[in-house]
Amino acid sequence: LAYHEEGSGVPVIAFHGMGSSRLTWLGERPLKQVCPGVRIIAVDRPGYGGSSPPPFGYSYSAFVKDVAELADALKLPRFCVAGHSSGGPYALAVAAELPARVAAVAAVCSDAPYAHPETPEELRRADSFSRSVAATPEGMNGQDPKVFAEGMRDGALRKGLPAKAHAWKSGVDGWVLDWMLERLPWSFLPERITLGAKVTIWVGGEDFEAIKIGAPFLNRLIPGSKLTVVQGGDHGFKSKPEHL
Fold first, then answer.
1. 148, exposed or middle or buried, with CB in 10 Å at 0-12, 13-18, 19+?
2. Quick one: angle between helices 145-159 and 173-183, nearest 10?
3. Contact 12, 5 (CB under 8 A)
4. What is the model's pLDDT at position 243?
């Protein structure tokens, strides 16, 4: 796992979203000004940026083992985790499977489980990636997700935005993994997370429809969790200090 650190204080291991990278956590202002007392450890998830590609059969639970090894190497007996968008399930997995080490978890604009037995039908319908390609260009029913991701990669590399260009430099394996894991039964149960109000679920009032529907569903699944709707916030509001 490639990672970078910024700030000092409470350690927060942070996971980026789909098609992004650890550079998404770098702001225009130093972290010590925006969030004093926080030490962020931003990770390139497997298949993104400088991290190795995910091996065959990789899962959320396999990622938890990787994070535990990273925390051991950094001598962190306890830490917080945060995940944005597709990074949200990864953060929740760490909280579920390392209960003795995770002090708190934030799922920011996170995807909810699309294949959970209790997933609302409204959420399934709102997931544009699960639609037919005949209905919407991003529908994955009827097209190869790898080919679709390669098109996204080409566009991101042409634009050259640092966080995106870094994300795609090693290929499309990370994106395809995210797309698959979100829509398969998850390897952990969010409802078994025992942190109560130290599980915070954040969603922008102007976020994508599937994310807006999924946030209260996650809130219902995770006992005692806290849901915050950021009015005026879009899917990227975590990068805008005015919303923090």
1. buried
2. 130
3. no
4. 67
Tokens of 204: 């922008």
Please write the tens of the pLDDT for every residue from 107-120.
999 999 999 999 99
pTM score, whole prediction: 0.96
Rounded-to-integer distance, Cα 229 and Cα 215, Å: 9
